[in-house]
Amino acid sequence: AERGRLGAEKARLDGPRMQLQTAKSALERQEALFRSGDISRQALEEAQTRVQDIQAGLAASERTIGVIESSVAASAADIERAQRDRERTVLLSPMDGVVIRLNAEVGELVVVGTMNNAGTVIMTVADLSHMRMVAEVAEADIARVQLGQVAEVFVNAYKDQSFQGKVAEIAMDRSNAGRSAALSASGSTGGSGTYKVEIDLTLSEQDHLLSGLAANADIRLATANGVAVPTQAVVERKLDDLPESVRTSTLVDRNRKVASVVFAVKDGMARAVPVRIGQSSLTDTIVLEGLAAGERVVVGPYKALDTLRDGMRVTEASATPEGGTSVEVRIGT
After folding, report:
1. Are 163 and 218 in contact (CB under 8 A)?
2. Pick from 219, 252, 275: which residue ends a domain?
3. How far apart (Å, rounded) are the C-alpha atoms in residues 240 and 262?
């Protein structure tokens, strides 16, 4: 409306401007006639008044146009500000993905973030084709974890499948969960904690994982060539309780009073075999030297293994309990 009024006011100036030009021309003629004495002063003054009246009318119209232009400029500024405000109401995701969490609906009040207040998290967007596992590693093991190490991730919801990944980030301080657990367990801040380790998963197009699933990870801390045996098969024995052939082995540290051995089954007897061991877990231990692939070793309850000595007869027995197959060795004299 203001722009239309402005155009009309500018068009209305054309008539008075032409009238002003005509009045100025008439005034010039009247001035010439007055100088020659052909007209009176009154006639000259009337011509001058006519020019002044038209000029005053033009000036008033131009002031009106100026006011309208200011109003139009203010309206344009209001429109631009309203457009900017509207643009601020549109949330643009910084990435392609899927909304995995929606915290606010249309019409609900949200708080704008400030320096000291993060504001309302309206929604969470995730790229499910690039998943990252946040694991907690015990303080005793974190020194051996390095960026780029290969990890195998086991998701509880996918019991028959594992996923490969690599260590992408290692926290520089203990996680809050770890501190709380340490305080709860020991009653002081000196307890062991956990460190957050983030693992990037390598997924195929057929893999569809949901965010927030519980999982465990095995991080390959080192790679060594050796023979894997059950951890319970590796025992320590006093040097005095071992035969001479074992005590003099290069695999036995004579500065120690005990040696690491496994008991191999040979001719129905348990024979102590000195070994050099590598990486170990709760279930398996890597034997780097001393044992050949395919050799049978004695495993069983701790009490039975604790009494086992070199040369004792053993009988191999198999059983198939509910839930799986197990092999045990019965120890005799």
Report:
1. no
2. 219
3. 16
Closest C-alpha among 136, 132, 110, 133 to residue 123: 110
Beta-strand relationship, 215-219 and 227-230: unpaired
Residue 322: both structure tokens together: 């509910």
Question: pLDDT of 26-43, one tens digit each?
Answer: 888 888 888 888 888 898
Each residue of 45-93: pLDDT tens digit? 898 899 899 888 888 888 888 888 888 888 888 889 999 888 877 888 8
Helix (H) / strand (E) element for 302: namely: helix 302-306
C-alpha count within 13 angstroms, C-beta hemisphere, residue 179:
5
Query: Domain count of the chain?
Result: 4
Among residues 297, 305, 333, which one has the least CA distance to residue 235?
305
Q: How many CB atoms lie within 10 A of CB 231?
A: 14
Report angle CA 13, 18, 23 to the nearest 5 degrees. Answer: 125
Residue 110 domain boundaries: 92-127
Beta strands (DSSP E) in 175-299 are 194-202, 215-219, 227-230, 235-238, 258-266, 269-274, 276-280, 284-289
